[in-house]
């Protein structure tokens, strides 16, 4: 029989620890030595038996009478075994509520009947809904303080149901209890004859959780390759669906298809089928190049594959918040990749559910919707469809802290349904006409000196111009790129796109970029031609010996690996609008030649 | 036809533990499994063997030897390691006593001294992930610990600064010198362990089953009379039918009177017991309410 995973939530002093203690105590799940210790500790504090001490285990917790961190409790009845993640309600520990809720089948939310719904009750209901916890139980606690009246209970129930109606809560139960006195926790309360439902424990024993996993979409993230002299298999945990020997599967992202030859349970028991969340080892019919982070699924039922994601983020980072442009490590299934935050769509006020689209950051315990761009494609499903393939964490690369939990809402709108918004301004309406001047050549060939002079000269003449220097752009626009061929191409592509926007806006974009590959530069030229914008390619043709002699950054002296013109290729232009050689004069002179070309 | 596609409680726990063990093997450079020959570490080694089948377990095991071991446990340890085909590394507390790094105290026992030896051995071998068989049901401080528990350069645990741990995504990133303690059995209880031992036919040191041996009653516990336990004035050993619920340093691990001679018997006994494992048999946990928390902060398991 399956165990039930429960996450508790509620404000400080709502009595969560007491409720959990009561549940353990009345169901006879406490041990005599634990109880003796609690009795002793209660006496030391001059209290009667304080059941909260059963769960508050850390020094600071006992000293301050609050719960600091998630505590996991285990107990069983003849009908079911339970794992309780007893999570703190204190606002600065919201992240622990999220931690507990991420694996929970059921969220147990407490409300103090004498106080009614608080910000924290709403926050926790929202978090349970956001984390996709399938069942929610609201315990209206401290009924003893309100005379056990049905009216008070119904008022709080109605308030909560109104709020929950705006959330994604499918199964909600409300139970009036007194954790202190044990009413309706394990035993039915004589003080509340008007309540016709089950006591809490009976409800927990009966709630049906079988259908809460995705058993439709087969997803097998490869975790580890098992190799022995006569065996090669892929170990992992099924993240969704069912797999059987003979099934045709496709390995993503490579796209190779093959069939499942055999499925082995741990220890080598051959299985006729495997389902989520079983940990198994698959043998495939063909020897494919498949490794950790890849995913096996059915060819006709694939997850999304893409670099742009939209996700809800719960921010946990204490030292720094989320801001647009921030870079993190994304950990998703068994894959890890770097991501950049490309946009913050809105920040959510979890009390009012109001969305603030003007927000520019998320700080500790804040929740918002963001857009991420991953360095490598991510294989994902929407979190609502599959928690295992839709959830991720963000890790700060410097501190190694887990700074956020994310729930993927889907592929980024930008990549799924791109539409072009036309401007209300036509090019002829603008006060100036733009162009792109693209200076290419070896490192230290003198491109930047010419570019700087050209920008100065144009601006001085009243013509809007802006320098896009390759080195400077590497601090931001292209900071996630390296110097391999693929990254260099992407670098040129992005700078080309930006230059085109400048040109379209009526500005002369002066680009100074090594851009070693002819094909990449030609693509940018084509981009401008398609947009009917001028594109001037200037080849700064300085011999490599001269470059090495100038070498202001010491690249040549250091013997920099992959240095263009030395240990990496450079393809000179075949039809540049202008070729500048050292003999053509200093930057002031050559910038003048380019300026003439632009006006001519 | 309706297929339930349900894992049993134990199958679910096994799948979760296997996932964690594989995750560590895939993402760390130098993992090691703490192995004392006690039931939880025996279950850990069994799970590791299953997780990588048919390949061998891709990491060694480490025993922190207080020098006060039950002979039955040491011989079982060597046999189990040989059968599993793993390499055994032993860190000896005696070496740290000899070097003056720690002082032996016949009254307090050597349990606490293990921390120094453990951290020294982790440093010497540059282990970056250390598996332990600790369970959250054992003790209140353990109930607060993550599956991947970050330890700083001094091996210390900071309960307030723990990384949030979501779904089955474990953040094991660390800098050189830091390491992660990994607890794949976090969600198991003593009863789960025993049911699993029974169902899987896992062999244990014979101490875990009822046998007759000389014992003395001290501080409300029954301690086995061994060459490591000097008898106090007035103590008279008696022969009792006992078994051990935990196995550790012989000077502070108590036994319980029991006639449970088979795994089935033990499962029945554990299911009915009203005393926790540690409460019944660990002298060192009784020192203070926060004894375990304090030791864990220092680097203990």
From TrEMBL, chain A:
Transmembrane annotation, as ranges: none
InterPro entries: APS, APS_kinase_dom, CysN_GTP-bd, CysN_II, CysN_NoDQ_III, G_TR_CS, GTP-eEF1A_C, P-loop_NTPase
Reaction it catalyzes: adenosine 5'-phosphosulfate + ATP = 3'-phosphoadenylyl sulfate + ADP + H(+); sulfate + ATP + H(+) = adenosine 5'-phosphosulfate + diphosphate
General function of this protein: APS kinase catalyzes the synthesis of activated sulfate.
PROSITE patterns: G_TR_1, G_TR_2
EC number(s) recorded for this UniProt protein: 2.7.1.25
GO biological process: sulfate assimilation
Annotated Pfam families: APS_kinase, GTP-eEF1A_C, GTP_EFTU
Organism field: Cryptosporangium phraense
Molecular function in Gene Ontology: adenylylsulfate kinase activity; ATP binding; GTP binding; GTPase activity; sulfate adenylyltransferase (ATP) activity
Designated name of the protein: Adenylyl-sulfate kinase
From TrEMBL, chain B:
Coiled coil: none
PANTHER family assigned to the protein according to its UniProt record, in alphabetical order: SULFATE ADENYLYLTRANSFERASE SUBUNIT 2 (PTHR43196)
Similarity remark: Belongs to the PAPS reductase family. CysD subfamily.
Signal peptide residues on this chain, from the entry's feature table: none
Record carries keyword Transport: no
InterPro entries xrefs: PAPS_reduct_dom, Rossmann-like_a/b/a_fold, SO4_adenylTrfase_ssu, Sulfate_adenylyltrnsfr_sub2
Name of the protein described by the UniProt record: Sulfate adenylyltransferase subunit 2
Span of domain Phosphoadenosine phosphosulphate reductase: 31-254
Enzyme class: transferase
GO biological process, one term: sulfate assimilation
EC number: 2.7.7.4
Molecular-function GO term, any one: sulfate adenylyltransferase (ATP) activity
Entry keyword set: ATP-binding, Nucleotide-binding, Nucleotidyltransferase, Transferase
Superkingdom of the organism of origin: Bacteria
